[in-house]
Amino acid sequence: TLGYAASAQVGEEVFALGGVQNGQPSRDVWRLRKSGARYAWDRYGQLPAPRLFASAVSAGKRLYLLGGTSKFEPYDAKGTCCTSTTATNTFWVLDTGDPSRRWKPLAPYPGEVRWGQQAVTDGAAIYMFGGGYQAAEKDPVRHFNEVLRYDLAAGQWTRVADLPEGMQGAAPALVHGRIILVASGKKVMLFDPKTAQFSPLDPLPQSASVDRFIWIDPLLVGASGENSVEGPRRRSEWTFLGRVSEVLPPLPDGPAPFAKETAWPKLPAGFAFSSKVSNVAADSKGRIYVADRGPHPLKVLGPSGELLGSVGDDVILPSVYYDLRQSPPVPMERRPWVHGLHVDHADNVWVTDVGRHVVMKFSPQGKLLLTLGTLDQSGETSTLFNQPTSVVVAPAGDIFVADGYGNSRIVKFDARGKFVKTWGKLGIQPGEFHTPHCLAMDSRGRLYVTDRENHRIQIFDQEGRFLEQWPNLHSIDAIFITKDDRIYLGAGVDDRICRVDAHGRIAEQWGNDRTFGYPHGICLDRSGNLYVAQTGAGRADKFRPVQEGR
């Protein structure tokens, strides 16, 4: 049996570090990973010394272990607290990509030693909250109220804040780029790393009163009930609390970097948006293309929102779309099921049709130039798609298609439309997908895939080799990358837009159900204006930047 171990996740692998094993303090590092169709534990290595009651976090491929103690017995014969007297401020790091599997020491955290501290990372820094110390059994536990920050790039510790009253022992978690702390008794606070300020949120529901709090994944909240001791064994009862959106109060917005243009667009009679506007794209001339699942399914607008015309009215035709999430699949209403939209470097316009299982290429003048897939036939071959969701074209002309709703794969074609290769299948491992929903390419030619139902973005080279992944990005429908590599994401179910940095960390985010109605497609034009297609609201909106240089 193993208890009191620290744990952290790297990619799809979970590590258990130290703890108490068979009644003795342990140095062992265990790893949980997929083995065939099941998950299995294997011994990964050892810590430099036994550690229990430590804190572990991960950033990229690196594991970090903070503090801990080396004795399991709470008190010795004299009543001295062994947990405190053996507590340490050591700080170790392990690069899981290093074959040697050796831990390296980092700068110890400053101040007095403690145990029970909590830690979380946003990818740029590690934040350590609180902790306690007890000299002897007769003495009360002394709680530390400080918040310490370790800059991962600079390698330095600083004290940045004090814990508010009642937050001693609070458990932190990174949720959509923000640090949430939940204390015993349902108290919830938001910590802003940029300002090092705390702000209160609404308490958890009465039914969610917990002693401790963890995140199981980006969607779920888990907690332990009261500990009970059965002989020498201590038991914790774990309760599923629900989805993040159901359990946690709404997070406050940051300042919106864009302002909506209320007079956009200007559509004449017969060209009004339908109830399902699915995507937007901009060309180099300032024209805006709007994919709309109604009459005139590919509308062309000018920068001021004036109608310039439509494309593909004679080939983007109504069809019956099947919702493959249902079993058996449920037929939806008959309409043009345009989904993905992309303008390439030559201003050709590409659209995916999830109802007719094809990808179509139009010239800037609106002439159909190429069709990939076979009209009204689904499958998983070099000539058949099953509800393709997105398309992007590399500067050299190679074509990449996310065959996303029916098949969990990426398909590559050359510039003439000849099949080259495919990769991916349904799953959670790197290179596997659960709804590859939207594609984008950065200035280095790297392919970004929003793996929506796996709540992550995966990045590949153009040969399909996996490069890295950005986890904990909840249900991302849309991604757009500007020429200078600014990365914007649209999260439909959260009604939010966010911008992430080059490491996938959320730099800013804004929006709610009053701002957006399920942002399903986004783009920026040559002037930096943002366009958002919203399937829930049945509209496309234009937002102008409110700050210079954006």
List the helices and strands and how they pair.
Blueprint: E1 2-3, E2 6-10, E3 13-17, E4 20-21, E5 24-25, E6 28-35, E7 38-46, E8 55-59, E9 62-66, H1 82-85, E10 91-95, E11 104-105, E12 118-121, E13 125-129, E14 132-133, E15 142-143, E16 146-151, E17 156-162, E18 171-175, E19 178-182, E20 188-192, E21 197-201, E22 212-217, E23 220-224, E24 228-230, E25 233-235, E26 238-243, H2 244-247, E27 258-260, E28 277-282, E29 288-292, E30 298-301, E31 307-310, E32 319-323, E33 330-335, E34 338-343, E35 349-353, E36 358-362, E37 368-372, E38 390-393, E39 399-403, E40 409-413, E41 419-423, E42 436-441, E43 447-451, E44 456-460, E45 466-470, E46 476-481, E47 487-491, E48 496-500, E49 506-510, E50 519-524, E51 530-534, E52 539-545
Antiparallel strand pairs: 1-4, 2-3, 3-6, 4-5, 6-7, 8-9, 9-10, 10-11, 12-13, 13-16, 14-15, 16-17, 18-19, 19-20, 20-21, 22-23, 23-26, 24-25, 27-52, 28-29, 29-30, 30-31, 32-33, 34-35, 35-36, 36-37, 38-39, 39-40, 40-41, 42-43, 43-44, 44-45, 46-47, 47-48, 48-49, 50-51, 51-52
